[in-house]
Amino acid sequence: MALDAIEKKPLKLFHPGSRILSVGSYGCNLRCAFCQNHEISMADARAAESVYISPEALVDKALACKDAGNIGVAYTYNEPLVGWEYIRDAGALVRKAGMKNVLVTNGTASLAVLEEILPLTDAMNIDLKGFRESYYRELGGDLETVREFIRHAAAACHVELTTLIVPGKNDEISEMEEEAEWIASVGALAGREIPLHVTRFFPRYHMTDREATAVEKVYSLAEAARKHLKYVFVGNC
Hints:
- The chain is an alpha/beta fold.
- It is 35% helix and 18% strand.
- The chain contains eight helices and eight strands, in the order E-E-H-H-E-H-E-H-E-H-H-E-H-E-H-E.
- It has helices spanning 38-41, 55-64, 84-96, 111-117, 133-139, 143-154, 173-190, 215-225, and strands spanning 2-5, 19-23, 70-75, 100-105, 123-127, 158-165, 196-200, 232-235.
- It has an eight-stranded mixed β-sheet with strand order 1-2-3-4-5-6-7-8.
- The longest helix is centred in the C-terminal third of the chain and has 18 residues, at 173-190.
- The protein is globular and about 45 Å long.
């Protein structure tokens, strides 16, 4: 739990300059070899050091941070949708208290789950790991599931996307252009511009067999995305 700048989620165009109470748990439904938070995302109840906070207590903490610029609660750090029922229950109380709910997710969830929490969600940052089904299979996921999740989320709330550029995995210019063109089409249908964060990989977890992504590569991919998108940001550079 931490009171973070909203830009760290990352959300650049949602209440910029504000802060948000960010909370996480343990567990994930993907198995990314490069996971930045593997100490909690790949842990279970026995391995993780955790303290249960009820939805009611969480709202009290969020309200207590308002004077420090807090606008609500962000569910983040691990994959929050592995415990989506908690988000549903807490989110209803956060909304009742007049504060915002933010979800930071990999988007690997059914539309039935999404429809449970979407009415309570004000903004999301969704990881779009890449734009090839073969890459998603490596991670234990499914590209079309994520694409459907993004389509439905963007039609109902503020959405920003993040793609972590992993050398040799999803760093082709042609793939980024295809991804950006698709994002633009989703935004057009939703009637809103969808920002994309293009971020730099660093060796972590089980993927220490390659160097960090070259900064020049990140910037060149961001430029490729800007052919189709109005808002493209680089990260970890």
